[in-house]
Design goal:
- The structure holds three protein chains of three kinds.
- The termini of chain A are close together.
- Chain A contains eight helices and two strands.
- In chain A, strand 1 and strand 2 form a beta hairpin.
- Chain A is 66% helix and 2% strand.
- In chain B, helix 1 crosses helix 2.
- Chain C is mainly α.
- Chain C has nine helices and no strands.
- In chain C, helix 3 runs antiparallel to helix 8, helix 4 packs across helix 7 and helix 8 packs across helix 9.
- The radius of gyration of chain C is 17 Å and the shape is globular.
- Classes of the chains: A mainly alpha, B alpha+beta, C mainly alpha.
- The interface between A and C is large, with 43 and 44 residues.
Chain lengths: 224, 189, 193
C-alpha cells in the first residue's frame, strides 16, 4: 500500500480522508498482522484460561480491548510529557488503574462472570498486549491512530478468543453461550473443557491460521 | 533538574490515578446497595418467599433482626429463631459463596443456598442446582457435616458425581462457618 | 505440617501454575531450547515469586486490609514486584556476579510475567496464611521451572521428528504443553485428601 505523505490539512476533507485511509490500514494491521494470538504470541495466559466458555471469552476480550484502547489513547495524549526513563512505570500505573476500574465495574454488572474470570481480569495488567501497544505504537503516534491500532489489536484478540472458545465450548460442553445445542445423548468431549484442552485448542487454531496465511501467500505469489 | 521532572510527573500521574480509583470506589459503594438487596432476596427465598426486589427491604426487616459477631452479619428469624448468615471460601476454580441457615439448637441446618460459584460447569457447577441445595435441609452438623459418596447418617449429604474437589471445598466452608457461629453464640458446642 | 507439604506437592504437580492455570506462558513458548537457560529462568522466577508473594502478603494483611484499601491490591502488588525485582537485580549485580550471570539477566523480563502477579492474586483469593503462602509460592516456582525445563527438553527432541509445518514453533509447543498437562493430571490420585 503506497504511503501518502502527510500533506497537512489543506482542506479538512482531505485531511480526514487521509486519516481514514491510514486509520483503517492501522486497524487491519492490528487484527491480522499484529494479531496478539497468532501474530505476536502475546496475552496467551488469559487466552488459555477463559476460552472454556464463550461468555467468559467475550467478557474477557472486551475488557482487554477497553483497557488497551484507553491505555493507548491516554499514553498517546500525554506522550509529550512522559520522561523517558519512567516510561515503563508510567504504563504500569495507568494500566493498573484502568484494570482496577474495569474489575470493579465487572463485579457490579456481571458478578457471576467476574467470579468465573477470577484473577485473570487483574492479570490484564501483566498482559503484554496492553503495554506492548503503548510502547510500540501509542508513544509515537497521534491519539487517533493509536485508537485505531488499539481497536484493531483488541478486535483481533476478541476474534481469536471467540473462535477458540466456540470450539472449546461446543466440543467440551456441547453448548454455546450456556445453551445446550448438541443433543443430550451425545456426551461432550470433556478433554476440551479442562486445561490440556486449552493447549490443544490453541495449537490447532494456530495450525489452521498458518494454513490460511500460507495459502494466501502462495496465491499472491509470495508477496504479502 | 531531570530527576525533579521525573518525580513531579510520577506524582501528578499517581494523584490522578488515585482520584480515578477513588471515584470508582464511590460508584462501587453506591452499587453495593443492590448487593444487599439481592442478599435479602436470597435469604427470603430460603424461607420459600419470593419477594420482588423493590419490596425486599421492608419484607426483610419485618421478618429478621440483625446481629453481628466477629465481623460477620447474622440474621435472626423472628418467629422460629433460625440463624442465617453468609459464608464463603475458595472452591476449585472460584470463590464459593453460600447462605447458611442454622436451626436454633445449632445442631442441624434449616437450609443452604449457594449464592455464587464458578466451578466446572456440569460438574462442580452442579452445586448450584436446587435439588442439591434442598438435600441440606434438616441435615445435622454434629460433630460436623459430611458430603460423601453415599449418604447414610443424619449428618451426611450426597456429593455431586465427578465433583469431589468442589464438594470437599464446600464441606470445609460449611463446617468452618458453623464452628464460627457456635463460638459466637455459645450454642451447640 | 502434612497439609503444607501437600500444598507444595499440589502446586508443583496437580495445580501446576503453568500447565493448569496457564500463567507465565509468554516465555514458555518463546524460551530457548537450552536446558541451562530454562533452568536459569526458572530459578529466577522461583526466587522472585517466593519473595514477592511474601512481601505482598505482608503488605496486604498488615496494611491494606486493616485500612480497607483492598481495591488498591493490584496496583500495590505490581509496584512491589517491580521494586523487588529492581532491588534483587542491583543486589545480585553488586554482591554475587556468579549468581547474576546465572539468572540475573532474566530479571527484567520477569516483572511482567503473569505468573508472579498471579501467585500473589491466588494467595489473596484463597486466603492463604503466611506459611501457606511461602509453601505455595515456592512450590509454584518449582512447578513452573519443571514445566519450562521439560518443554525445553521436549522441543530439543523435536529435531528428530517432523511435525506439520503449519503448526510452527508456537503451535507444536502448545500441543506438547497440552500433552504434558494431560500427563500431570495423572498425579491427581496420588494425593488423597
Amino acid at each position: 500500500m503506497a504511503e501518502q505523505p502527510g500533506s497537512g490539512l489543506k482542506t479538512p476533507q482531505k485531511g480526514y480522508r487521509l486519516f481514514q485511509k491510514k486509520g483503517i490500514k492501522v486497524f487491519i494491521e492490528g487484527v491480522w498482522h499484529n494479531n496478539p494470538i497468532f501474530g505476536m504470541m502475546l496475552g496467551l495466559c488469559s487466552t488459555l484460561a477463559v476460552t472454556n466458555l464463550m461468555a467468559n471469552a467475550l467478557v474477557m476480550s472486551l475488557s482487554v480491548t477497553i483497557v488497551v484502547i484507553l491505555n493507548s489513547v491516554i499514553t498517546s495524549l500525554i506522550r509529550g510529557f512522559i520522561p523517558d526513563r519512567v516510561r515503563m512505570v508510567a504504563y504500569m500505573i495507568i494500566i493498573s488503574t484502568l484494570v482496577i476500574a474495569v474489575d470493579r465495574f465487572l463485579k457490579v454488572l456481571l458478578p457471576d462472570i467476574s467470579n468465573a474470570l477470577g484473577p485473570y481480569v487483574a492479570l490484564i495488567i501483566t498482559n503484554c498486549i496492553v503495554m506492548g501497544r503503548a510502547e510500540a505504537f501509542a508513544i509515537n503516534n497521534s491519539p487517533g491512530l493509536s485508537f485505531m491500532d488499539a481497536l484493531g489489536v483488541g478486535s483481533g484478540y476478541t476474534l481469536s478468543l471467540m473462535v477458540i472458545a466456540f470450539f472449546r465450548e461446543l466440543i467440551g460442553f456441547g453448548s454455546l453461550f450456556g445453551v445446550r445445542v448438541i443433543p443430550a445423548s451425545i456426551t461432550p468431549l470433556g478433554l476440551f473443557a479442562i486445561p490440556p484442552g486449552a493447549f490443544f485448542a490453541l495449537g490447532t487454531y494456530i495450525f489452521f491460521i498458518n494454513l490460511l496465511r500460507n495459502r494466501s501467500k502462495k496465491e499472491k505469489g509470495g508477496s504479502k | 533538574m531531570k530527576d525533579l521532572k521525573m518525580v513531579l510527573f510520577l506524582l501528578i500521574l499517581s494523584s490522578l490515578c488515585a482520584l480515578v480509583l477513588g471515584g470508582t470506589e464511590v460508584f462501587y459503594e453506591k452499587a453495593s446497595v443492590i448487593f444487599n438487596q439481592r442478599l435479602y432476596q436470597s435469604v427470603l427465598e430460603l424461607f420459600d418467599q419470593e419477594i420482588p426486589i423493590e419490596e425486599v427491604d421492608a419484607a426483610f426487616s419485618g421478618k429478621f433482626s440483625f446481629d453481628s459477631h466477629g465481623g460477620r452479619d447474622y440474621f435472626l428469624e423472628k418467629e422460629t429463631g433460625v440463624v442465617v448468615f453468609k459464608a464463603d471460601g475458595p472452591g476449585l476454580w472460584s470463590r464459593i459463596e453460600i447462605l447458611l441457615a442454622l436451626n436454633p439448637d445449632f445442631e442441624s441446618l434449616y437450609g443452604l443456598k449457594v449464592l455464587s460459584q464458578a466451578e466446572t460447569p456440569g460438574l462442580g457447577g452442579r452445586i448450584a442446582e436446587p435439588e442439591f441445595q434442598e438435600s441440606f435441609r434438616g441435615i445435622e452438623v454434629v460433630p460436623s457435616l459430611r458430603i460423601v459418596k453415599f449418604a447414610a447418617a443424619a449428618n451426611e449429604v450426597d456429593a455431586v458425581t465427578g465433583a469431589s474437589k468442589t464438594c470437599e471445598a464446600l464441606e470445609k466452608i460449611i463446617n468452618k462457618a458453623v464452628a464460627e457461629a457456635r463460638q459466637a453464640y455459645k450454642r451447640g458446642l | 505440617m502434612k497439609e503444607l507439604f501437600l500444598l507444595l506437592f499440589a502446586s508443583i504437580v496437580t495445580s501446576n501454575i503453568a500447565l493448569t492455570y496457564f500463567l507465565g506462558m509468554c516465555p514458555f513458548l518463546a524460551i530457548s531450547k537450552e536446558i541451562k537457560v530454562a533452568t536459569g529462568m526458572g530459578a529466577a522466577v522461583t526466587v522472585v515469586m517466593t519473595f514477592t508473594s511474601l512481601a505482598n502478603w505482608l503488605i496486604n494483611n498488615l496494611i491494606l486490609l486493616p485500612a480497607k484499601l483492598e481495591f488498591l491490591q493490584f496496583l500495590i502488588f505490581i509496584i512491589t514486584i517491580a521494586a523487588m525485582v529492581q532491588v534483587l537485580e542491583m543486589f545480585l549485580d553488586r554482591y554475587s556476579p556468579t549468581l547474576y550471570s546465572a539468572f540475573g539477566i532474566f530479571l527484567p523480563l520477569i516483572t511482567v510475567n503473569c505468573a508472579i502477579l498471579g501467585v500473589s492474586l491466588f494467595m489473596v483469593l484463597r486466603s492463604y496464611s503466611l506459611i501457606e503462602t511461602i509453601f505455595y509460592s515456592f512450590g509454584s516456582g518449582l512447578g513452573w521451572t519443571v514445566a519450562i525445563v521439560a518443554i525445553g527438553g521436549l522441543r530439543k527432541g523435536l529435531i528428530f521428528s517432523d511435525p506439520p509445518k503449519n503448526f510452527g514453533a508456537a503451535g507444536i509447543t502448545a500441543i506438547l504443553a497440552g500433552l504434558m498437562a494431560l500427563a500431570f493430571i495423572g498425579f491427581t490420585g496420588v494425593v488423597r485428601g
